[in-house]
Amino acid sequence: MGKEFITPPPFDMEKSFLDSTNKTPIIIVLSAGADPMSELVKLAKTKNAHVEGISLGQGQAKIACDAIAHAQEVHQWVVL
Length: 80
Description:
The protein is 39% helix and 8% strand. It is mostly helical. The chain has a domain at 35-80. The protein has a two-stranded parallel ribbon. It is globular. The N and C termini lie far apart (37 Å).
């Protein structure tokens, strides 16, 4: 086997966006040190979208649910 079979390709945010729909979210599983937020913000700018970022933790569930409901109404993006 060659290196191409064991090395994952670089993540392509635009391609993932094109594969998603308003009913099919993008789910990114992060590893230690990974932070795709800058790529996501850059993509949002090209799509004229607003991104709402919420850190999940104790007491954040209601805030996250409210942000998702609001984003659905005004066609924004929510990052949890």
